[in-house]
Amino acid sequence: MNVCFVASEVVPYAKTGGLADVSGALPKYLARYGCDVRVFLPLYNMVDTRKYDLRPVDSMQRIGLQFGGRWIHFSVWGGTLPDSNARVFLIDCPELYHRGSVYTDSADEYLRFALLSKAAIECCQRMGFAPDIMHCNDWQTGLIPLMLKTIYSWDRLFSRTRTVLTLHNVAYQGVFSASTIDVVGMGEYRQRFDNDDLRYGIVNWMKTGIFYADAITTVSKTYAQEIRTAEGGAGLDRFLRQRGGAVMGIVNGVDYNEWSPEKDAFTKYKYSINDLSGKEANKQHLLQRVNLTYDPAAPVLGIVSRLTDQKGFDLMFDTIDQVLSRRNIRLVVLGSGDERYERFFSGVQTRHPGKVCYYKGYSNELAHLIEAGADIFLMPSRFEPCGLNQIYSLRYGTVPVVRKTGGLADTVQQFDPTTGNGTGFVFRRFSPKELYWAIEFAIHTWHNRPVWRQIMRNGMRKNYSWEAQVQQYLRLYLRLTS
Ligand code: ADP
Ligand code: GLC
Questions:
Q1: Overall pTM > 0.85
Q2: How many CB atoms lie within 10 A of CB 415?
Q3: Over the chain, what is the mean pLDDT?
Q4: What is the homologous superfamily of the domain 2-253+466-481 according to CATH?
Q5: How do residues 222-278 score in pLDDT, each as one tens digit?
């Protein structure tokens, strides 16, 4: 099975969120099962080519593509995904990708990913690589299915290619002026785009992908249902319903080589389900690292997140100060994003000196230390397609407090004191009161040490490895190509 996998971010090269984790792991596991996988992403200026042994591919240098009246040139760097046979190709085009961040607000944002999409296709042509599956991810690659059916339909290399579009988040759809259709070379096929959108003078890349991909997957079963409703579909629900059985949910896997307390490369003290003692040492180490005092009687609450509206931190505006005033706890927050959340967490830190550390920014190391050192992990998302941090938390015995939505609903079960079953604390309504209840319930339960250890173990026993999840993608690929 030949698989061409295209994504805007891939671990370990470039990452802003969970898409990169998935794009770095799934291809690796597909390759392990015998697929010939070739991964494409942009060569952003922050990619460390030396560290990952990436080199220019001789046969693919200074390739020109026309966009509107202008030629854009790109070159290709190649390597292999660490610990795998999957090959990776990075599209080098400084004028588009040397912008200091993966995503931008620039007017030519569409062009950056139009180039990625076309370059992936044209590299397949140059390598004579006939993909059985072209696996696209999110809006950035949403035009590929239609491109293959139109501007590249002449090429028999793709005559058997089937397309899969994975929706990691329907909140970002890639909506641009309709005039960009001409620039990306699809003017002749204007009518194939949503006509209502065209009347409004816009084009929606994700919607276009939903129209033309042979299969559409999203990253949890519950989210697959939610996006088919007016409430959760962000305007795409009607089109997803129209695609019927072509839409399915496959929960993300986790790379336990990177995210497990036994193997964690960033933590000093390893621990496991059979010996939890290292957990306390990691907690001390975490608190020392963020300059908070360790108190064995105070549970540590952790957050690692992009700070956007999606993540539900609005619920904390009216709750967390109260919890911090009344309870002997510590709170460690790692994240950056919208200014109002950054300001909020800075304020919380100022109001509760010695109890709270807000680390504004991005740090993979600190993300690992929080998973290993916190007792409770907070993820009150407004919506959550899958969510990875709650799954990491389960494995680290860091009991998650989550809202029952999307992938959080699929991966965390409410703890039931009468049976001792359950892996976390789950609230339903998007209300501060319910979050408050869940946090209080968790803190209260933490003080009952044997019960808490039971919840930790319930979670640590869960297995969300890619080993299991990759089978579902393989079955889908087989169904599409047979
Ligand atoms: P999303 O993709 O919506 O951001 P996920 O839970 O799927 O949410 O994945 C988030 C990923 O990004 C996790 O691997 C998490 O550890 C990482 N992450 C998020 N914010 C930060 C940060 N500030 N520093 C380091 N890692 C972060
Ligand atoms: C998106 C979603 C997140 C998901 C990730 C990987 O960023 O917000 O819930 O886990 O993609 O699929």
A1: yes
A2: 23
A3: 98
A4: Glycogen Phosphorylase B; (3.40.50.2000)
A5: 999 999 999 999 999 999 999 999 999 999 999 999 999 999 999 999 999 999 999
Strands 63-67 and 70-80 turn out to be antiparallel
Q: Which of 252, 306, 309, 368 to mutate to test the pocket of ligand 1 (most atoms within 8 A of CB)?
A: 306
DSSP string, 158-203: GTT-EEEEEES-TT---EEETTHHHHTT-GGGGGGS-HHHHHTTEE
Determine if the peptide bond prior to 12 is cis (ω within 30°).
Answer: yes
Class of domain 277-460: alpha beta
Give the three-state DSSP class for 422.
coil
Would you say the CB of residue 400 lies under 6 angstroms from ligand 2? Answer: no
Q: Are strands 300-307 and 330-337 parallel, antiparallel or unpaired?
A: parallel
- List all residues whose CB is within 6 A of at least one atom of ligand 1: 17-19, 21, 304-306, 334-336, 362-364, 367, 386-389
Concatenating the DSSP letter of every residue in 277-315 gives HHHHHHHHHHHHHTT----TTSPEEEEEEEESGGG-GGG
CA of 326 to the centre of ligand 2 (A): 34
Residue 306: beta bridge partners?
Answer: 336
- Structural domain boundaries of the chain? 2-253+466-481, 277-460
Q: How confident is the model at residue 146 (pLDDT cuts 50, 70, 90)?
A: very high
Give CA separation, 121 vs 10, 38, 108, 276, 311, in Å. 18, 11, 20, 49, 35
220 lines ligand 2 (CB under 6 A): no
Q: Which residue has its alpha carbon closest to ligand 1 atom 12? A: 17
